[in-house]
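Internal ticket - ligand job 370, flavin-adenine dinucleotide:
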Amino acid sequence: MDSDVLIIGGGVIGLSIARELAFDHTVTVVERGRCGEEASSAAAGMLGAQAEAYGDDQFFRACIESREMFPELAASLFEETGIDVGLDRKGTLLLSFSEADIAARSERFAWQKAAGFEIEQLSATELRREEPFISTDVLGGFYLPNDGQIDNRKLVEALRRSCESRGVNIVEDTAIERLAVAGGKVTGAFAGEAKFSADNVVLAAGAWGTQIDAGFDLPFVIKPMRGQMLQFRTAKRLFDHVIVGQRGYIVPRSDGRVLSGATMDDAGFDESVTNEATARLIESTTEISPSLGALKVQDVWTGFRPFAPDRMPVLGRVPNAENVLLALGHFRNGILLSPVTAKYIADEIRGVGSIPADFSPSRFYSAAAA
Ligand SMILES: Cc1cc2nc3c(=O)[nH]c(=O)nc-3n(C[C@H](O)[C@H](O)[C@H](O)COP(=O)(O)OP(=O)(O)OC[C@H]3O[C@@H](n4cnc5c(N)ncnc54)[C@H](O)[C@@H]3O)c2cc1C
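stdout (structure tokens):
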């Protein structure tokens, strides 16, 4: 099956790239299972560009750029598919339960303030005015008005529908096992006897990204970082903001669901939900809001965040196979980074624009050579 672009992996990253390129290319997405059902569905959907940042670097700037792309993306997905992806820009609150934590966060966010990014320090009274159901043990905190959330499951559903209406060929229940390489180019991708070929091949297989036999040297491994999540449900929405405590966070959806997350377990591809993690998540949730302690856990799940050795995204062409691009390693922020990743990869294929150097796969090749 021939296309201009073959995308291996139909998560939020693969689908976002496919949708973007479908304007001017024939695109095939090959997905091992069903599109969007792995990490992209497991996520909490926080758009935490500022909450997750520790320094003013290319990663932070990409997160900010991507966050600002969501209003237009959500509007255009709604127009094309009728699906409201639940973009919510009411902001994120960070709660502190000790003076030491307030001081540490204040220092941590000082550079963001200095660089002109909106952030407000709030007293305990101000926080409780915003969120009456939070713990009375809260001593103070911070408000990031421009971070927010999206319903990531609706996002992948809308991306998939939009891809279909833009003519993307989506092939599910088909795992690519190996790539064939000749003359420094990938000439085909094989799923059993089925062969897919394309001018450009984008590897977007998430935590499984380096398990495919690529046929050329990939001097790094993408690994899974398991995250376990819980879901509660309240009769009506009790919280307006994404709320980050000292040991976990809650993400309130508009229909009363409250997601609580998430663990970071280096446990390979073990999908288990553990009792220990469930207990820890219940504890961190009730620390944020004791009223949630009276509810029963409605759902639990796990997902695998894809991470590279330096925990940074790996985006762009590889030096040793000219028509292969990687879109891997989005780790904790793949939902947030999906629109900008699509732009970077599509621009690279179109031969316009450039991907920030910090994300280039060549960093691993030069390290290996040294
Ligand atoms: C618990 C948890 C909470 C998170 N919370 C957030 C959050 O709040 N905000 C945020 O921005 N990010 C969050 N993330 C991270 C985010 O979910 C990921 O970074 C993102 O989903 C990665 O997208 P992806 O498309 O690369 O991977 P995936 O969604 O895993 O998609 C990869 C796809 O490739 C397919 N595939 C694998 N091998 C093959 C093969 N051989 N052939 C064909 N297809 C193949 C898989 O079946 C899968 O569908 C969270 C993750 C977890 C687990």
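Auto-summary: The CA atoms of residues 28 and 169 lie 5 Å apart. The longest helix spans residues 99-114.
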